[in-house]
Amino acid sequence: MKAQHLPTKNGISLKNLNYYLDHAVTMTEFLAVDPYASDAPYPNKEDDIRLIKNIGAKFIGRAIYRWGGEGILKNEDFLAKGKQLVQQVHQNDPEVIFQAALFEQISQQVNTLPIPAWAFTALNIPAEQRNFRYDDMLNLKGKLVDHWSKGNSVPDITRTETQLWFIYLAGTYMDMGCEALHLGQIALIGMEDPDLSQWAAFIQKLRNLAKTHTRNHWVLLDAHTPSGGMLYKGKSLLDFNSFPLRVKSVPEKPTDGILEIGFTDALFKRSKGGISPSGWKASSMPYLVELDNFGISNHPGVPDTTVIYPWGYDEISWFYQQTETYRNNWLRYADKWIGDNDPNGHLQMPVTRVVTLGYKKPRLKYRANTRSENCPDGMNDEETIKSIWQQKKLK
Q: Which superkingdom heads the taxonomic lineage of this protein's source (predicted)?
């Protein structure tokens, strides 16, 4: 298969970017293989490889990230297994792009990781032989320190140590084969960078790193953009924007959820325009919306039309609890609704994701795979995703 749509060293055209966003999936931790347990955190990798080929997925979102547990990155076997999975998928389709996530969280485990010399070089600062320093990534005024839990904080992008950490993560994931990076909640990380000048300088260094660490010398960047974008002096720092779908409960129809322009902070019709990193202009930057996971509310099962929890759950957990028929019809509805209401938006199809059904209940996993011996927990949404994409191609 000829790879026609991949970025080049000069970036990616709007047409080719839309091609990837039209074939994007959320496939959480596909590349994260625990070297101490070959089937963790998600088993049935071979069936996932089959699914990617079957539905024609081109952009594999959230394929690897760390939310705590950073010490695993010292394990070369962990990284090698992820790289091997990238190579297996590329044997079927070299156009596939894998996305890693940097995210707005650090734990004290970063103190166990040595900083490679190339990370210092990428930031144009003298190299030292030392480990990362958690305390040096924290906001000097105490903002968002221990935000997630004791010893788990939001790093501050204005701190050099935070930039070292992010450049290290980015380079590590690029070397694995990831050619896209999700920057997470950039407003939290940029708590002391209201004009985005620090972000702009860092992202330029990130793009410079991609010139030598990715096969096409380019990295696709996105982030959660509740403000509508990440514009600096008229230019978008991101190749595209991303946000949760923001599903609204329908109280008169038990468990039903809809999409609505203007509901809470939904991104529909709010993606800001500007000059893209590749040089083309857009009146509104393209964006992905997904069924996000962010935990259960304090009122599970109760419809509240003023909050972001459909029927009291996060979006993927709400979706997980629907019948197969409802899920399949809802994906068709959501894809059409977005296309009709804001063509700049693209539905990132759910494939694998953690769901949360209640406090102290086991965390389950949503899998779109067709149920089989090779994926016994599959939920049979795979063929619907494939059909939606095929029908769009015929139009």
A: Bacteria
